[in-house]
Amino acid sequence: MNTFGREFRITTFGESHGRALGVVIDGVPAGLPISEEDIRRELDRRMFCHIHWLNPRCEPEEFEILSGVKDGHTQGTPIAIVIWNKKAISSYYDELWLKPRPGHADLAYYLKYGKFYDHRGGGRASGRTTAAVVAAGAVAKKLLAQLGVEVAGHIIELGGVEVKGSYTFDDVKKSWEKPLPVVDGEALAAMLELLRRAAAEGDSVGGGVEVWAVGVPPGLGEPHFGKIKAELAMAAFSIPAVVALDWGAGRALAKMKGSEANDPIIVKEGRLALESNKAGGVLGGVTVGEPVYFRVWFKPTPSVRKPQKTVDLAKMEPTILEFKGRYDVSVVPKALVALEAMAAITLADHALRAGLVRRDKPLRDPIAR
Amino acid sequence: MNTFGREFRITTFGESHGRALGVVIDGVPAGLPISEEDIRRELDRRMFCHIHWLNPRCEPEEFEILSGVKDGHTQGTPIAIVIWNKKAISSYYDELWLKPRPGHADLAYYLKYGKFYDHRGGGRASGRTTAAVVAAGAVAKKLLAQLGVEVAGHIIELGGVEVKGSYTFDDVKKSWEKPLPVVDGEALAAMLELLRRAAAEGDSVGGGVEVWAVGVPPGLGEPHFGKIKAELAMAAFSIPAVVALDWGAGRALAKMKGSEANDPIIVKEGRLALESNKAGGVLGGVTVGEPVYFRVWFKPTPSVRKPQKTVDLAKMEPTILEFKGRYDVSVVPKALVALEAMAAITLADHALRAGLVRRDKPLRDPIAR
Amino acid sequence: MNTFGREFRITTFGESHGRALGVVIDGVPAGLPISEEDIRRELDRRMFCHIHWLNPRCEPEEFEILSGVKDGHTQGTPIAIVIWNKKAISSYYDELWLKPRPGHADLAYYLKYGKFYDHRGGGRASGRTTAAVVAAGAVAKKLLAQLGVEVAGHIIELGGVEVKGSYTFDDVKKSWEKPLPVVDGEALAAMLELLRRAAAEGDSVGGGVEVWAVGVPPGLGEPHFGKIKAELAMAAFSIPAVVALDWGAGRALAKMKGSEANDPIIVKEGRLALESNKAGGVLGGVTVGEPVYFRVWFKPTPSVRKPQKTVDLAKMEPTILEFKGRYDVSVVPKALVALEAMAAITLADHALRAGLVRRDKPLRDPIAR
Amino acid sequence: MNTFGREFRITTFGESHGRALGVVIDGVPAGLPISEEDIRRELDRRMFCHIHWLNPRCEPEEFEILSGVKDGHTQGTPIAIVIWNKKAISSYYDELWLKPRPGHADLAYYLKYGKFYDHRGGGRASGRTTAAVVAAGAVAKKLLAQLGVEVAGHIIELGGVEVKGSYTFDDVKKSWEKPLPVVDGEALAAMLELLRRAAAEGDSVGGGVEVWAVGVPPGLGEPHFGKIKAELAMAAFSIPAVVALDWGAGRALAKMKGSEANDPIIVKEGRLALESNKAGGVLGGVTVGEPVYFRVWFKPTPSVRKPQKTVDLAKMEPTILEFKGRYDVSVVPKALVALEAMAAITLADHALRAGLVRRDKPLRDPIAR
Q: Where NADP(+) is bound, by residue (chains A, B, C, D) (predicted)?
């Protein structure tokens, strides 16, 4: 339901225009250094406040750690983080009360929850709820850092513009110094232009991202039903607007012969390794010590200003919806940060499952306060 | 680990050349009619014995229902099905003992399980293990039939040949009367030719399939982390060789504007409906009463006769592998049947979670024996 | 870990002297009426503020519902409730930093979490954390009320004084009008006197309680490992200080012959029933439509003013602990309310698992706001 | 449902007079030595074939390991064990088809499963199904042995006769050389006499057992809802006929003052320890390095030869049941072995959860076959 993970386990709650969003993070061993700053940094990354026209209502999140952390370290108990919703402008949504927005969760939620759900700002289905996931991802990243694992992603497609050329994991990390994390400068310029135009038209665009995890040790993942690939796929499709996923070289592999698709096995620095890594670091659902990577595509934001056909729920008659609220021209940048978080959470979960971190005792054990 | 599902729950076991494969199916209410014939039909569909050159070692599976079924009905207790392995020819595999096959689980399993795992025939990582999933899928399909839900899939791409033109769900079901379930006759001919050529060359091909579920009632799926989309993605990526997934219109949506991508909401026969169904029957992770569909791509079978670079594990030195065993020229046909099964299991699970089937009492309650 | 339940699922968090306690309640269908008053009533019942000498620091809890409820009804989304900790007097605990209190979780937490856990007021192990469970129990009771199920308990033993005579479920419910819920007036007087004396001596007492659930429909519970009995036992032993449990007639059954212990089966008002109910409403782990009841015993509060032998953790040398903080002379009254809550949560969970409540649609479906 | 455990996870299946019983054991790392003999020894211990009048139909179980074990070691994959049912004499049960046996699961199963369940020999509710649990317990004990943990139990009460005097863990283990595992010779003689008499009368008796786990490391158990105490309570109440449980000193603690009940904390051999161990090795739900122990009571076998009141299900009229089948005069001896198994499984699960055993690699890693 609203819980993800087996040993590193998050439970999220909250509606977009309700009192607060939040997450309870369970399973973290005692003694992991964690500060408000660690959480804030990830929440800020998600906001892209520096591109003000992309996100007109941009303000840093206000959050509190309610439990599980003391004197800058985890206690081993559940970490609850609450992100307060600001006085949101909900009046936009009054008109939508009886007009489900095409492409949104509105219709599905109406059928499942009747008129009891909070539709304002997308309610529980809002992309905004991924802020809670991102907060949890900050903790997962800290835990992974102890194991030498690093997770980062970038945008590879936006509104049809695709990134060209090759790049390294360092390029991916450095791309975050740009307005949008895009390794290819030419593509970035085209994307920004395209976003501006879509905003002006009252329309929205989709796109794709790629997430890498490097330093992942071999032996993570559980066949048959706890495969790294399968659980990362579930993690990815938990994020709103995801429509496609390629693992490793992905769909291109389906057009290759077996003799082309297989990654030769070699010895590198005394260890078994893959010569290429079309497999995305996973064979048989289990990591082999190579970087893990996958790509995910998102549909365009369903909220657009253009008139759309919908139904008046009271009269059960066709009507036209003209949305006047604020919306993100593309979900892709924020969703990328959420996807990084979900990847980090999934890998942290598998590291705990595999026993890489002891939990019968703290990470470190100082006696002095 | 080897368990999937929350209320309709399957636990699989077995290695390809071990004593047996099997599955325990838990959560089925009492009183569901089920016969050995129901199981056999699905197991037979998976074998494609009618294309003998595709699957040279083809024989019907021998299986037993060990528990949970009596007098042609479920008892409400766990249903254990065991599929006996025949005297497999394992000698092919002796040479592979120290030579992990590129593209296979061998390398990952060696790193995780050391030399304790059974590598013969792919062992636990073999596509053959999906026979157990297919047996469970037969039970799930019987339960879904009670709710008016039908699941079926077809091949949409093989070795680069793609199906053209439009088709209906009836076309999809009828395609199973052909040698391979392909709605487009021209594509089918090209695919068969291509398979034959690959077999002759000692190589293999990948491809793609599409699975439909029709009659799915609205309101199934649990945001945030039990979304239908997310759990079907996990289900799909649990099947060996899956490399990509498109939900609904999939990656094409990422290139559309929001005004193009959204499915207009209409009233049809007195009910809320979608004018188009690019969303694949799901909004916000919850079904809306439209058909559910998604596409999945598979890499080519990693086993090929062509020489491949690998490592001698004893000497940790490069070596060449020349595989001489039998192999499937493409995993796609069998994997499609496994994917149908996983889709049926996932939907049956969600039907139980949502309370569509009572389990405090039997489906029907005759007193006479 | 900190999550309980499969379909009605609670996740708790919080330390006794931290920022807040709380709970996320997941799985509740949309449309269940729930008010702050419903929560407050249960939280107040737990406090026993009317016996001021029993609980010297008594003040009503301050709590907020952060999500999942709108306009007095559940939304179908997770319900997060946060209970703010007041400025607690933590100075008592400074001296305890290196002196684990005998009988408390201190020693175990020190071994597991090192000096990272919050020991103040018992931290995560405090009985106070059951306030979050009680808040969740209020929601479970509301859901059970829709099914005609009622849960209530009473004290049957305190400091060695045992309740005498027979009583009905109505007597149990009415006992809550007394200072302590004890059906036997004479026993109550003796218990109150005994509590006063123990308080004066700086000591504490244990005791026992009984919880009833009436109106439980037949057919709840899942053999083998989801037996009602087994899950209620787990629920009960999750509450701090529980040391024993009797199901139905309990240990007395172990001394009977089979011919005495079996409850004869009869027809009552056209339905199958038990003539007696030594079985506590459950056979083979499944409810039969008779009242469910069980008894639970608690050890005395480990915090006492009397000097106790412990170890100085810095020096690893014996030392004497003289606890000066406030403590509950007995955990029994508060723990009883927590036990009622856990019983309600467990039964609500089983009602959902068995499909007694649909969750593909709301409980009721008004269109008007 | 029929699955127990999170990281060491068992799934059982099978009816008493069906084709077979069995269990799938998941989560065991690769490289654990395990032989058929290990399984057989535990299955034999459960049978008590040496007391032929206790168990007239006694024969050793026939079982097969279907998967997960190769060359005497675990593979890291699920271990499926099937125990074949012999040609059972089911004719006894024909008359019971419409006459639910008082005290048995019959009534509950009829209400939940209608007439679809297999009532013969108790079907899925039979104590015989614990044979599958015992097989899994054999594997858990092997894993625990690697960590220096040993589990053993003994009978402390039978038909009202209670064991007197003190004893050590060695006494407990040695008691298995006697006809029944009873440390007190006088009590044993009385118990055997009493069993004989009950058998002659066609009646049955209940009793109690105690289970010890020594060598349990500190730091196992997860507050709030994965407490060792809570999960062992659930484990115990999963076994048929359990009616009561005392943890540590149990109900006696409820009559003590806090100053008496607390175990003083001391330093022993350089480690923190408890002077006494009334706490049963657990504080706050977490182990402290002291022996874990608890006691469990069982009701008498519900099957007795004496006439009993029941209902004819077809006519819904009162009738008399005179059971003529074979039955165990007491469930206690067999149930004790099942309880040991459940305790071992629970502790093995917690050892894995806490990361005491790595699962990203095998226990040992020989390259040679």
A: 46
